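Encode chain A's predicted structure.
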Amino acid sequence: MSSVAKLIVRQHRPYFYVAILIGAIALTFLIQRYLYLQETQIQQQHIKECKQQDGFYQQLRKKNEEMSTYISRSDTQLENNKYELDLQKATIEQLEQQLSLQQEQLAAFNKELLFYETITQGDRPNKLQIRELLLRSDATDSAIIHYRLVITQGKKINQALTGTIEMIGNISKEESSVIAEHPLNLRHVQLIEGQIKILDNNEPESITITIKQKKKTLLSQSFDWQLNPPSE
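Encoded structure for chain A:
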């Protein structure tokens, strides 16, 4: 071989670099595509989860509205029940008061009936007489005295005996005054009830009942001042 250097000429290959460039571009596209698909999938998953949460929220909201409506209706029903219960309670109390009042009235009626039976039983004397004078203290005012006067007569008369009845309070032997006056209208029994007021604690020593017909005194009778306790 000659010592003269040999010159080697190599042929240039441009397609090789083009292929590398195209491969790099394709790889970059695939990577970007992959990343885009991954991001899209994540976004879709997030959207799906948001829709699920929104659906769950709507269900909770609907349940809450239903519960609020139920509570409101329950409160209204409770108020109605309370009103009806209060009304029933008030009605029962009113009925109990009416029943108690009727029982008291019945007891008073039976007492009066027994009283009339007592004063009319047996043979009644024909003469005019005062069967009872009852004096009773007032439950709240000691100055007020309640009285009940019973007058009877046993004669068979066609017309009632009329006149006046005077109640005279005898403070002392020297001092007396008329404390009450009532009309006389007597056939068999006459019941008179009323009250007098004692002034300055001047209680009479006695009370005189005088029955007059016109100017004629038919009967005059005195009773000691004896007070009974207040009625219950």
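The beta strands are 129-137, 144-152, 161-170, 176-186, 189-197, 206-213, 216-224, 227-228.
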